[in-house]
């Protein structure tokens, strides 16, 4: 089967979040199952020259966009059985950021068109087109409603929602200007939702199947609490809404072969984890103590991620207990300032790195004892999977993919891989963390919890099989 995926980001080329990790790993696994994979992404200027130097010019294309002829180049890069196609247009993608530009609506309207221009000019037709999040969610609409794409309009489509919070909402005028389609599509509600042009809503309405990145998130977004005002539409599409749990790239995240960490290790030689812990402490200037639990968080700093919860929990915990905490992340100014002040108030216990460092992230996964994820909602979450792969015990809130992957430790059965709060049931994060810290002091349990996590299957192979079965049902 020939499958074409399109998304706004893709690891390792351009990454802002978990979407990029999915795009970097899932196509490889599908290719291993015998499918032909093309992945279409913008060529941002922030892509490393290491990769750009290997890109080959495939073709130059033109199409009508906003009343004028627009051109772009298609650059090809083949890796791990996947053909990556990069859309090069400096006006829209020569930027130092992936998102957050004033013309995002126009940039991704152009990208949706570019994707379809590539698809319709390919010699071998695609069997299925799989788009991701709002940035490419207009592709199914254009495929069905724009006469330019009549020759490929029979291609089946899948849309994956990675985070329902981001919907690509703009004005009626933006829709008319950027897509040059008849106003009736807005006026009859085809692309409109709650008084706005809504890209994600449009994709949900036109696509053959909708997937989410975990089974629990699939159920959550049907409710008022998590549905982001799209739950009534999703309820109408419930029979076509499927939850498939994300995986991680177990070749990239493998403590036994990871060159970014101080000492490789596995579940049978877990003592190497202590070497990585000391390496962290030495690097950031914290006391090199193996007996003190080292907590970490690697995250975008936003309200979704539960930073407000840590604002309540961490100052008291640091004042009362012998613990260490290392943060790697960036985001909202108020949260960055909170962590910076925490480092000032507890200089021998806290280190904060505002920004991102891939190698340092690997070291933190490998050397920390406990990973914090107090998210108010989490469609899937990859950090808890990576942390468990490296024997770092997650303390998480029971939502979305965290509920599907973090299993509360049962000391009687010696089963489970982490600890959970449940905000909806008033089970506080502080209680889950205190329980975790209590078991840290009991080596006979702590070693079991770590190894339980490390033995889990977090690979994409299982998820890729589920996607392949879904594609077969659609075709």
TrEMBL record:
PANTHER family: ALPHA AMYLASE DOMAIN-CONTAINING PROTEIN (PTHR45825:SF11), GRANULE-BOUND STARCH SYNTHASE 1, CHLOROPLASTIC/AMYLOPLASTIC (PTHR45825)
Enzyme class: transferase
Alphabetical list of HAMAP family matching this protein: Glycogen_synth
Residues in Glycosyl transferase family domain copies: 286-446
EC number: 2.4.1.21
Residue sites binding ADP-alpha-D-glucose per the record: 15
One Pfam family this sequence matches: Glycos_transf_1
Endoplasmic reticulum among keywords: no
Protein role: Synthesizes alpha-1,4-glucan chains using ADP-glucose.
Pathway membership: Glycan biosynthesis; glycogen biosynthesis
This protein's UniProt keywords: Glycogen biosynthesis, Glycosyltransferase, Transferase
Entry's Gene Ontology molecular function annotations: alpha-1,4-glucan glucosyltransferase (ADP-glucose donor) activity; alpha-1,4-glucan glucosyltransferase (UDP-glucose donor) activity
Protein name (database record): Glycogen synthase
Reactions this protein catalyses: [(1->4)-alpha-D-glucosyl](n) + ADP-alpha-D-glucose = [(1->4)-alpha-D-glucosyl](n+1) + ADP + H(+)
Record lineage: Bacteria, Bacillati, Bacillota, Bacilli, Bacillales
Domain Starch synthase catalytic positions: 2-236
């Amino acid at each position: 089967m020939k499958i074409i995926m399109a998304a706004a980001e893709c690891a390792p080329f351009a990454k802002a979040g978990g979407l990029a990790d999915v795009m970097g790993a899932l196509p490889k696994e599908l290719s291993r199952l015998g499918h032909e994979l093309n992945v279409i992404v913008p060529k941002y200027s922030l892509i490393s020259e290491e990769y750009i130097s290997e890109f080959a010019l495939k073709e130059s294309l033109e199409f009508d966009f906003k009343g004028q002829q627009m051109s772009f180049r298609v650059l090809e890069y083949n890796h791990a059985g996947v053909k990556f196609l990069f859309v090069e247009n400096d006006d829209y993608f020569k930027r130092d950021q992936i998102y957050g530009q004033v013309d995002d609506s126009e940039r991704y309207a152009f990208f949706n068109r570019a994707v379809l221009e590539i698809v319709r000019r390919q010699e071998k037709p695609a069997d299925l087109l799989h788009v991701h999040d709002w940035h490419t969610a207009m592709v199914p609409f254009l495929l069905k409603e724009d006469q330019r794409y009549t020759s490929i309009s029979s291609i089946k489509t899948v849309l994956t929602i990675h985070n329902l919070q981001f919907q690509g909402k703009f004005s009626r005028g933006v829709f008319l200007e950027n897509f040059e389609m008849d106003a009736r599509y807005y006026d009859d509600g085809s692309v409109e939702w709650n008084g706005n042009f809504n890209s994600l809503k449009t994709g949900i309405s036109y696509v053959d199947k909708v997937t989410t990145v975990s089974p629990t998130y699939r159920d959550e977004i049907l409710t008022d609490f998590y549905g982001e005002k799209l739950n009534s539409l999703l309820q109408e599409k419930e029979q076509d809404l499927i939850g498939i749990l994300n995986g991680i790239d177990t070749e990239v995240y493998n403590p036994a072969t990871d060159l970014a960490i101080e000492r490789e290790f596995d579940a049978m030689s877990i003592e190497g984890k202590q070497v990585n812990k000391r390496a962290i402490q030495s690097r950031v200037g914290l006391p090199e103590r193996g007996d003190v639990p080292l907590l970490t968080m690697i995250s975008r700093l936003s309200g979704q991620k539960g930073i407000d919860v840590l604002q309540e929990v961490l100052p008291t915990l640091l004042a009362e207990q012998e613990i260490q905490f290392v943060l790697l992340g960036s985001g909202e100014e108020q949260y960055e300032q909170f962590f910076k002040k925490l480092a000032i108030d507890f200089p021998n216990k806290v280190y904060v790195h505002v920004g991102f460092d891939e190698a340092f992230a690997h070291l933190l996964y490998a050397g920390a004892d406990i990973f914090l994820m107090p998210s108010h909602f989490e469609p899937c979450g990859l950090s808890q999977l990576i942390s468990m792969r490296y024997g770092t015990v997650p303390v998480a809130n029971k939502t979305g993919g965290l509920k599907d992957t973090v299993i509360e430790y049962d000391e009687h059965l010696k089963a489970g891989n982490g600890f959970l709060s449940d905000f909806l049931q008033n089970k506080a994060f502080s209680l889950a963390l205190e329980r975790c810290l209590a078991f840290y002091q009991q080596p006979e349990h702590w070693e079991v919890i770590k190894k339980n996590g490390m033995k889990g299957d977090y690979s994409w192979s299982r998820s890729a099989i589920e996607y392949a079965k879904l594609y077969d049902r659609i075709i």
